[in-house]
Amino acid sequence: MNKLIAGGLLAASALSGTAASAEDLATTMGPILATAADPATINRKCDAYVSAIEARRTALEEQTGPATLQKTLAPYDEMIALITAGQGDFGLYQQVMADKPRRDAGADCLVRLATLTSKINLSRPMYDRLKAIKATGADSATAWYLTRTLQGFERAGVALDEAKRARVQQLNEELARLGTEFDDNIANGRKVLKIKPEELAGLPADYVAAHKPGADGLVEISTDTPDYQPVMTYAESDDVRRRLAEIYNQRAYPANDAVLRQIFTLRQELATILGRPNYAALILEDKMVDTPAKVEKLLADMAAAARPAAQRDYEKNLAVLHEVRPGAGRIEFWQTAWLSPKVQQKYYAYNPQDARQYFAYDNVRDGILKLTEDMFGVDIRPWNTPKWDPLVETYEMVDHGKVIGRFYFDSHPRPGKYGHANMIPLRPGIGDEPPVAALVMNLPAGDHSTGLMEHSQVTTFLHEYGHMLHGMFGGHTRWLGQSGVTTEWDFVEAPSQMLENWVYDYDTLAKFAVNKDGQTIPRDLVERMNKARYFNLGLGDMTQLGYANISLQFHQNPLPADFGAATRQWRDQYAVVPAPDWVQMQDSFTHLNGYSAIYYTYRWSKVIADDLFTRFEKEGLRNPQTAAAYRKAILEPGGTRPAAQLVRDFLGRDISLDAYRAEMALDQ
Ligand SMILES: [Zn+2]
């Protein structure tokens, strides 16, 4: 057992007056991701979590006498911490284990935890106990926690009669199972394109070197991001890009059409039982943008600002296309990523490949850690702890001599591993014990010989790291259920999106971006990169608004007969380059499971991020006072205050779309 974690939990539980259960809480969480675990061990660990959570549930339901913060909210909060830690532990097993049986064991436990959570959310006795708490005189964070918790119970259907509650429980279980099936189909939906070696023309030399022909004389290109993205960006052959885009946009198709149809149908039934017109209305209630109509208005307002920018982008792309493909009538779906560097070269003398040589993974990682140290005055040092793969990296963050957070970087692709990038909170900060989190990413590994990254990959790294900083700095709240990234869901992306600005800052880049000869990235290259940055922003945002539209419309309309056709239509209401009729992206659009109707949150967070960044722009990106104010107002509170209040605390006013509009109006 991890003694440190156990000790911290004991201390916290002793404070909350439930010392008797502390040992069991500590034992349940135990160490993170034992490397030698087999499926049976993972299942046993799951059993321990489930019974520890069940024990708390039963105790709360059977509680009598006056309900108080200490006696009632504290054990409830511990139960929430167990669920969160469990979701982290088993989510990690599902994403990173080397073999399918262990990944499946992780996924199975997530379903069990979801079932349990749904049961808890429908527990009338527990709701009644929490509602009975006399919170008079409680601090505002505690009051907000209680309010949000009770509203959550109400939205889950706690007030329904027994038969309806039973049906809701059934629906939640079925939805959890279907969600896992949807994700699994995507994870197992990797496809491969075989091409002739000469069709790699245009790709960087290191990519070509890493893609040698097989025994049949052909080169294999997979739909995994590190394989797919460079081909879509650099391959000179339209045919290769079109063929690759086609298999990429048909991952998990048609299997997931059937799964999605069931998911959407059950979600609508759930909304109906709960007295809401549709699932979108239900899921939006506890967000900052809290109704479907407000989301539609947001998308329209953003499109009004982005469309003119997108048109300018389109014209520039088309002009370049005409140079290389005389007579081309329009830009095709599989040409946008490939045209982008060409336009950047022509209009801004910027070639992303010029920048690539300065971004070796090892340096980027060190640079990102150093940036945190410089901005926030903390130290980051290696953390000696077991790992599940030799390439996993582990660190701890120290503030004034005290460890305030621990984290894992699982940065590189492996067969079977989760294919995108995300941050997994593993432990909330408990008493003196720091929060723990993992970044799961798919970046190249090593130094300049093997680890060169696109600037966009550097941006992804910093973005995910931003979530982790939020988890670390916000991981010290009184209530575990308000720890870290527990703000309103549609605020969560804002801090990460804001942080992306730093990889366009020369002073930041100059500290880590060096090529293999030790030369620092030239200032004029960074200046050109900045000019090129705003190109395609309009085009890209319009596509993103299209995705947000897909996610919303599937959840507030009768189900279309042809999912692919509806998806393309909803996308193309906003996206400027239309999707060909072989695009079946709904089946690999992972957010349709996890985010359901609320993909707009990424765009809304961008509005907030742009707005938050205005203060850094004024006061300096590396101004430690501003960074300290930001940490205190935005990151440290975690979920203890409404997000709109966090923004007011930092900016001194309400959120505005003005910074976003100004960004879209930039015509470089
Ligand atoms: Zn994010």
Distance between the termini: 57 Å
Low-confidence stretches: 1-22
Total of DSSP H or I helical runs spanning 4+ residues = 28
The total beta strand count reads: 7
* Average pLDDT number: 92
Helix content: 55-70%
What structural class do helix, strand and pairing data support? mainly alpha
Percent strand equals 5-15%
Are any ligands bound, and if so which? zinc ion
Biggest beta-sheet profile = 5 strands, mixed
Rg: 25 Å
Main sheet strand line-up:
3-4-5-7-6
Overall, the morphology is globular
Describe this structure in words.
The chain has helices at 3-16, 19-29, 39-62, 69-96, 100-121, 124-131, 140-156, 162-187, 205-210, 225-234, 238-248, 255-273, 279-284, 292-324, 336-348, 352-356, 361-376, 455-473, 494-499, 506-509, 523-533, 537-553, 563-572, 591-594, 601-619, 624-635, 643-651, 658-665; strands at 192-195, 219-222, 379-382, 393-399, 402-410, 422-427, 436-440. It is mainly α and 668 residues long. Helix 10 (225-234) crosses helix 15 and helix 22 crosses helix 23 (563-572). Bound molecules: zinc ion. Zinc ion is lined by residues 463, 467, 493, 496.
